[in-house]
């Protein structure tokens, strides 16, 4: 009996040494706390990314490449360059998605009293750039924090039930040496995933404000797909 | 259980056989319990049969020989409410008539579908809906016909397909639903 108790205690200690599981408000791994503190020094950030999308119906993933810019507190611009060009710009109160070859721009308001599955899920796209532990925990439940080699992986679950119905999990990888963002991975309810691996990051580069206020050519069609929240299915 | 003399009548169970044995089995009050059990067994057998025919399709390796992959962007125009949404589209077709379609508003998957000569399945992740059945899909599941259209297969009469250097369009003339777009890789990729 004493031996069994000792074994269980030892196993529990080993488990804790490798994985810190944090509930809301509880103690975070000091590495994560330090990473969150370091975020306040980030006023801007840019990097190349390799985007890997895995679908249940395909045994091999699909890849795309592009560039991302971030400007505190919550503006970002994702430009997918290959294979099909798309630009997503998160401005102060809306997300714009621009399809140059379709000559089309779609607007997704992010403010306003009306919630909704889409709005809540779109709001999660800025994962990876939390400003504080409070802000992180306001949007996510921290499921686990794992440190391996020099990478910490945070597994987050959106607190919004509506967002969870589309995207039940988000993972963030950051370097524990310089706290730079290494990767983000979104898990969707259909079992598909999208991972962005970042390369050639630049911390606090000069940012042209026009990046977040793109000029839309006059011949582009402007649409607001979420107007009167509807279902895209048949 | 004995056999009665054959009775030629339609008893509502669809049997007008002269053999009588089965009729007696259904009609005899004493065999009500047997009837219930048989009905249950038949129902289970039917479910198993349907389930076997519509088992989930295994993942596809598009790098295997015989697959042609097209990727690009498209706008999905829904019928009735005239709403539309753009996204990235991937269609893959195989020499044996199989097809895969993915339509995403990256990063969010919107439609994921597969079709073979024997069955089809489609998923709408935002609504967490999944449909599958043997045979050909209903025309209202327009996305599932995209792979047939690009590979030149015959389409139901309600559907029309158009493709030229500027792009392509698949339309359900009955409902007004359509998907139209362009292929990024003008030369089809063959793995």
Topology:
The complex is a heterodimer of chains A (234) and B (191).
Chain A: H1 2-18, E1 19-20, H2 30-39, E2 44-54, E3 62-71, E4 75-82, E5 86-90, E6 94-99, E7 104-109, H3 117-123, H4 133-139, E8 140-148, E9 151-158, H5 161-164, E10 169-175, E11 181-187, E12 193-203, E13 221-223
Parallel strand pairs in A: 7-13
Antiparallel strand pairs in A: 1-8, 2-3, 2-12, 3-4, 4-5, 5-6, 6-7, 8-9, 9-10, 10-11, 11-12
Chain B: H1 21-27, H2 32-53, E1 67-77, E2 84-94, E3 99-105, E4 108-115, E5 119-124, E6 129-134, H3 146-150, E7 159-164, E8 167-172, E9 178-183, E10 189-190
Antiparallel strand pairs in B: 1-2, 1-9, 1-10, 2-3, 3-4, 4-5, 5-6, 7-8, 8-9
Tell me what the structure shows.
The complex is a heterodimer of chains A (234) and B (191). Chain A has 234 residues and is an alpha+beta fold. Chain A is built from 5 helices and 13 strands. A 13-stranded mixed β-sheet of chain A has the order 1-8-9-10-11-12-2-3-4-5-6-7-13. In chain A, strand 11 and strand 12 form a beta hairpin. The radius of gyration of chain A is 20 Å and the shape is globular. About 7% of the residues of chain A have low confidence. In chain B, strand 1 and strand 2 form a beta hairpin. In chain B, strands 1, 2, 3, 4, 5, 6, 7, 8, 9 and 10 form a 10-stranded antiparallel β-sheet that branches. With 191 residues, chain B is of the alpha+beta class. Chain B is built from 3 helices and 10 strands, in the order H-H-E-E-E-E-E-E-H-E-E-E-E. Helix content of chain B is 18%, strand content 36%. Chains A and B meet through helix 3 of A and strand 1, strand 2, strand 3 and strand 4 of B.
